[in-house]
Design goal:
This protein is an alpha/beta fold. Helices cover 58% and strands 14% of the residues. It contains 7 helices and 6 strands. The protein has helices spanning 2-20, 35-43, 69-77, 80-89, 95-101, 111-126, 130-142, and strands at 26-29, 32-34, 46-50, 54-56, 93-94, 106-108. A 3-stranded parallel β-sheet has the order 1-3-6, sandwiched between helices. A 3-stranded mixed β-sheet has the order 2-4-5. It is globular and about 45 Å long.
């Protein structure tokens, strides 16, 4: 049990660091994204995936319940009902459903498209004022 408590504490710290970063964090997903990986997607600023991607929070299937801060973030990103659907069933959702639920910004056809789209967005953000982006993120999360 001490191991699990330390693991959850470490995950909490990582998710909050990502969430509070002054630098925009973009997640790329190509395949199965579960548990803390999906929570990392939820904590990030933007998330892009391929059509082949699937998302799930399977903790409930093995007697655990996801409760890191990103779970609360997911409620703000999507509806509470969508978040509960994932948390209470442990069932996977496909990329199109994750997009429709608001967990993903873009769904790409393949890995080449995924890389191109991510670079396009990263370069666009990088061209903006770093202080303005940092202030904007901080202000966004304060409200």
């Amino acid at each position: 049990q001490a191991f699990l408590q330390q693991l959850f504490k470490t995950c909490n710290n990582l998710m909050m660091t990502v969430h509070n970063s002054a630098i925009p964090i973009i997640c790329m997903v190509n395949g199965l994204c579960t548990a803390a990986g999906f929570e990392l997607v939820l904590s990030s600023d933007l998330a892009i995936c391929t059509k082949a991607s699937k998302f799930m929070t399977p903790g409930v299937n093995i007697g655990l319940f996801c409760h890191t801060p990103s779970v609360q973030v997911s409620r703000a990103v999507s509806s509470e009902k969508h978040a509960k659907q994932l948390l209470l069933t442990g069932d996977p959702i496909d990329a199109a459903t994750a997009f429709r639920m608001g967990f993903i910004n873009f769904v790409c056809d393949d890995t080449d498209h995924l890389l191109r789209k991510t670079q396009e967005i990263a370069f666009k953000i990088r061209s903006k004022s770093k202080p303005v982006i940092a202030f904007g993120k901080q202000s966004f999360h304060a409200h």
